[in-house]
Amino acid sequence: MCFSLERSFFGGALAVMFGVTAGDSNYDHALVPAAATGNSSTLSAPIDQPSAFRSPDCTQMTLTPAGAFMRLNAYSAALLVPEGAVPKHQKQSVVLSVVKDDKVVIAGARVTFLSPVVFCGPVDTKVHKPFVLKMPHCAENLSNWQFSLYHSSGVGEGRWNEVVTLGKENINTPAFVQIDKRHAYTEAFGKYVLVGESATDIQERVACKKLRMFICGPVTVPEFSDVSVRIYIVEDNPGAEERCRYCEQEIGGVVLGKSSVLYFSDNSQDLCIDIRCVGGWKSKPFGDRQVIPFSHVWNNSNSTLHCSFTLSRTEHDKCDFKIDVQAIQENAAFSVAPSMLTISSFTPLSKDGSTCQHSSSSFETMTICSVGSNGATSGEHNVINTDKFRLTKLAKKKLCKCLDPPTQKGNDWRMLAAHLHVDRYLAYFATKPSPTDQILDLWECRNRDLNAVCSLIEICRNMGRHDAVTVLQEIQTPSWL
Q1: Nearest-5° angle of CA 412, CA 437, CA 152?
Q2: Mean pLDDT over all residues of the chain?
Q3: In whole angstroms, what is the distance from residue 88 CA to residue 65 CA?
Q4: DSSP code string of 368-389
Q5: What average pLDDT score do residues 441-454 get?
Q6: 393-476 has which fold?
Q7: Which end of the chain is more exposed for a tag (fewer CB within 10 A), N or C?
Q8: Which domain of life, per UniProt (predicted)?
Q9: Which helix (H) or strand (E) holds 307?
Q10: Which whole number is the average pLDDT over 268-279?
Q11: What is the mean pLDDT of residues 317-339?
């Protein structure tokens, strides 16, 4: 998702509640412990304190006129502030965080949440140029969705307002949103969330989102008493495992395993979760299946839905212990495989990179250059120095001079937008002083690999813009360096 919001401040606050009725005692919505949320009270601490905003969920840096690039590795969220966004001789502190403790209320019977709630702030930061906020989403089959971006002002309960619905933009729309298969990007400050519902533009469609299950239990298994295990159902975005870990830390539990992808469709069908135990354990009588109503899954908002199963020990010397969990929507199509989860011990799931990273085959994290370790403090691994921008200030200025003027062949900024797949609503760029400048900011955030400039050179060459090729070749780093 890419959007460019014309605001001169960072905003932040959000509120949503997804309740469970008293009769649903088998499962609940666990709110994740507090993190940096963007509320004014939260952000009142001095930003330069060593302990402030240094965690996998939040990072901060001092912004200068040279611009900056920040990201939260665990959540694949990123913030790119272009050169010139801050006035000369000024410095401002910037925060990027994933909000996990707010409740988000957005009207709409069939609306579902697709991204984490991402905040950049604080609220009184002044900027002169829009910039790019990138975050992941869990939507499957994008053509079946109608996407909307929502923003919270951060006042009181934090009322959420619709910023834009894709396909319904006009010349006054304050944001440009580009939904990609792998990521959602935005140019904006504030607290934002991406939501969606089944598209109805041509015919009734059935939207589908990706979820994932995590099984959690006690740190140590009691010798003679029963054991309660919890199955969390969360959006399949980066950081899902961390959300479950935070919930379990509050009650002294740990994450034991995670499932394959769970595909959940907007078809009003409930979610069935079955558990099977072998090797000295069994579930309580009639307690091996739980059914979660469709609305509790589809309309869940920024809270961690889970159900619990109670297991009883049957034998103490069994060594072939195994728990199998399967989840699927009732009356699901035969082509949809159930989500599976298996553990063979009560050993906590490793937190190393191989197990903790998002593993959906349709997702890919952004590649960036790391910061040197000399004098680095905790949390600085999330920040990219401004000299790591792919385009220099001079090169960008030259490219804008080349591509901003319209050409008879159409091989100007409009063709560049088409080649970069950000041409869904060209009227947005046309209203800017430099359309090329906006497009290149989006390119900078989306293309952090080492061969990005080479790819841009090839695009300009295919456009027949050899003047732009010459500009880019001047800044290209030789492959042997």
Answers
A1: 125
A2: 76
A3: 6
A4: -PPPP-TTPPTTGGGEE-GGG-
A5: 84
A6: Death Domain, Fas (1.10.533)
A7: C
A8: Eukaryota
A9: strand 304-313
A10: 91
A11: 80
